[in-house]
């Protein structure tokens, strides 16, 4: 497993995403992932599965400090009066004294960036989280985030071969911030893509494995594929025994012209 080191944090480049997994399924999949060798687990208040994820981690027989655990503050909890109580509830549900990374899940137009970032930094000062970051933040919003002098380590956004995130990724690299890719296989839409399929055949890999390899081969990019099938966990891990050639990377890079965004709720920011 490859690790990314950023601002003092060492994070496995491939993690388990738990979006859309109900509590019991999240518990089972998290337990299976930890057994398979995963040490990076991602959840969120909005997923309503922190309890299941926490149970799996607690019962895994693995030292807590060996697992990099991320959760995210729901956009409805960003106001000062709600923020820290919601994090305290997350810690109770996760059955842990701290998370390794606490993110702002989505911006909220009704809560100023400075207000929620102040609370995020306060959560870090209180020891509720080791590191802080954001999710679904555009470069314009990131400018506001960085103006607060918050030392964020990542922006978690939709990123896969079929979307153009060049502007955002370039910005993050310039600022020394990692990019965590959610929906890294475009929620299955990479399957059957002729370019990814042809490249995969060359390496004896699937379109999914090629997509994940393309991501983690980039500078300071992490990927958190979600699966509800235990048998897929090992497939997703099996991306560290090959390397895409520069020519193949270039071919995959061309797919971003499709600019396919699969996650775009009504409350999303105005994307770059």
From TrEMBL:
- Residue ranges spanning the membrane: these are none
Q: Where is this site: Lowers pKa of active site Tyr?
A: 72
Question: Per UniProt, where does substrate bind?
Answer: 105
InterPro entries cross-referenced by the UniProt entry = AKR, Aldo/ket_reductase_CS, NAD(P)_OxRdtase_dom_sf, NADP_OxRdtase_dom
UniProt domain NADP-dependent oxidoreductase: residue ranges: 14-256
The UniProt similarity line reads: Belongs to the aldo/keto reductase family.
MF (Gene Ontology) = methylglyoxal reductase (NADPH) (acetol producing) activity
Offer one example of a GO biological process linked to this entry: methylglyoxal catabolic process
Name-wise, this protein is Aldo/keto reductase
The root-end lineage is:
Bacteria, Pseudomonadati, Bacteroidota, Cytophagia, Cytophagales
Catalytic machinery residues: 47
Coiled-coil regions, chain positions: none
Q: Which organism is it from?
A: Pontibacter indicus
The answer, when asked if Oxidoreductase is one of the entry's keywords, is yes
* Keywords (A to Z) from UniProt: NADP, Oxidoreductase
Asked whether the keyword Lyase is assigned, the reply is no
What catalytic reaction does the record list? Answer: hydroxyacetone + NADP(+) = methylglyoxal + NADPH + H(+)
Check the record and name the SUPFAM superfamilies matching this protein: NAD(P)-linked oxidoreductase
| Gene3D superfamilies, alphabetized | NADP-dependent oxidoreductase domain (3.20.20.100)
């Amino acid at each position: 497993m490859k690790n990314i080191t950023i601002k003092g944090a060492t994070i496995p480049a491939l993690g388990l995403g738990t979006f859309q997994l109900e509590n019991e399924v999240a518990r089972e999949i998290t337990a299976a992932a930890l057994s398979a060798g995963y040490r990076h687990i991602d959840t969120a208040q909005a997923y309503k599965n922190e309890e299941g994820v926490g149970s799996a981690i607690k019962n895994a027989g693995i030292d807590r400090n060996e697992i990099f655990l991320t959760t995210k503050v729901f956009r409805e909890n960003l106001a000062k009066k709600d923020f820290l109580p919601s994090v305290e509830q997350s810690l109770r549900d996760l059955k842990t004294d701290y998370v390794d990374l606490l993110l702002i899940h989505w911006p909220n137009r009704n809560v100023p960036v400075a207000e929620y970032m102040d609370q995020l930094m306060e959560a870090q000062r209180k020891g509720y989280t080791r590191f802080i970051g954001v999710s679904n933040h555009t470069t314009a919003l990131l400018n506001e985030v960085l103006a607060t002098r918050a030392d964020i380590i990542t922006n978690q956004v939709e990123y896969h071969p079929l979307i153009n995130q060049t502007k955002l990724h370039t910005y993050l690299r310039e600022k020394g911030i990692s990019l965590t890719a959610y929906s890294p296989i475009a929620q299955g839409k990479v399957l059957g893509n002729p370019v990814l399929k042809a490249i995969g055949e060359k390496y004896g890999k699937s379109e999914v494995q090629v997509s994940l390899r393309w991501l983690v081969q980039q500078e300071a990019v992490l990927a958190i594929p979600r699966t509800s099938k235990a048998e897929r966990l090992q497939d997703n891990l099996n991306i560290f025994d090959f390397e895409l050639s520069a020519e193949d990377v270039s071919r995959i890079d061309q797919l971003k012209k499709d600019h396919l965004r699969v996650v775009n709720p009504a409350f999303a920011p105005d994307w770059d």
